[in-house]
Write a structure and sequence with these properties.
This protein is mostly beta strands and about 120 residues long. The chain has one domain (about 10-115): Sandwich (Immunoglobulin-like). It is about 0% helix and about 45% strand. The chain is built from no helices and nine strands. The chain has strands at about 10, 15, 20-30, 35-45, 50, 65, 70-75, 90-95, 100-115. Strands 2-9-8-4-5 form a five-stranded mixed sheet, with no helix packed on it.
Length: about 120
């Protein structure tokens, strides 16, 4: 019998503002070479952003991965993709190995709050 145990560290901003670009960094105690890495950010009001690395059909502009004994991944939330999100939102991250085994490595909450500035230069 084999037991798979992942040690995962997620470094996310305390607050994300609607519509802003944001990054979430993670480390995991496994070599992610050839793995698919997927992330979904969603809320209870059917707002959702799905991101993936190159192996999963996304790209480095969505999730970049630095492989190694301990791998690092950087989730890049594009500007304007969270315009309609509510404050209590969720983050879920999963990985899939070459054999097709899927592991959810993180699920947690995100605070996405309303931004107020709507101008680009002072009037």
């Amino acid at each position: 019998m084999s037991i798979t145990t992942f040690k995962v560290n997620i470094d996310a901003p305390r607050l994300i503002f609607q519509g802003d670009y944001a990054e979430i960094e993670g480390t995991i105690n496994t070599d992610l070479t050839g793995y698919k890495v997927r992330c979904e950010i969603y809320d209870k009001y059917n707002n959702s952003v799905e991101l993936g690395n190159t192996a999963s059909g996304g790209g480095d502009s969505q999730i970049s991965v630095i492989e190694g004994t301990t791998s690092t991944f950087l989730i890049k939330i594009p500007k304007d993709n969270t315009d309609s999100f509510r404050e209590d939102s969720f983050l879920e991250i999963e990985i899939e190995n070459a054999a097709g085994n899927v592991f959810t490595i993180y699920k947690g909450t995100l605070k996405i709050i309303e931004e107020k500035i709507e101008w680009t230069s002072p009037s």
